[in-house]
Amino acid sequence: VITKATASEPESPIETPLEGYAPHGIAIFVECLTDNNNRTVASVRSAFNKYGGNLGTNGSLSFLFDRKGIFTINNEGLSLEEIELEMIDAGAEDFEIDGDTLTITCAKDDFGSVSRKLAEMGIEPEESGLKRIPNDTKKLDVESAKKVLKFIETLEDDDDIQNVYHNLEMTDELAKALE
């Protein structure tokens, strides 16, 4: 009896967090979404090795980052005082205004209630999601920081990588050097 070979269904992508240290001790947390875990881990490990970093074991650096809800809103024509009061009731922890942009930060557990409150108020965020925020940042001289940013850019260019979080402090001096 001859049986016909059937192609197996493609695997659905899985989320894979990877953690390690970039050069100069900068903590890196990488969120991957991949259909081939071996390929992705090998690619990330290769980037860490190429730039002189070390890929760590899962969970080894997660304590350095808090998972927070982040909402970015165009605040043009809105009453910031009213929004802040409503958002505090919904669980917002922090507000940052930069020109016409309001950024609201909340605990991961309050993400849903802040999101619902914004919808009730008829406010559509330009961007919203859970992000990893470093508990502590680390300053580097401009040249060292540029090397770390080049490494981060290399990681971000990988199609399987969704987000790269780090604890490098973006100083004014560094921002000016990058312009």
Give a written overview of the molecule.
This protein is an alpha+beta fold and 179 residues long. Helices cover 32% and strands 31% of the residues. The protein contains five helices and eight strands; from the N terminus they run ββαββαββαβαβα. The strands form two sheets. Strands 3-1-2-8 form a four-stranded antiparallel sheet, covered by helices on one side. The protein is globular. The relative contact order is 0.20. The model has no long low-confidence stretch (mean pLDDT 90).
User: What about the largest sheet?
Assistant: 4 strands, antiparallel
Distance between the termini: 69 Å
Q: Quick check: average pLDDT?
A: 90
The helix count comes to 5
Contiguous runs where pLDDT drops below 50 for at least 5 residues: none
Radius of gyration: 20 Å
**In terms of structural class, how would the helical and strand content be classed?**
alpha+beta
Give the secondary structure arrangement, pairings included.
Layout: E1 14-21, E2 27-34, H1 37-50, E3 54-55, E4 65-74, H2 80-90, E5 92-98, E6 101-107, H3 111-120, E7 127-134, H4 142-156, E8 161-166, H5 172-178
Antiparallel strand pairs: 1-2, 1-3, 2-8, 4-6, 4-7, 5-6
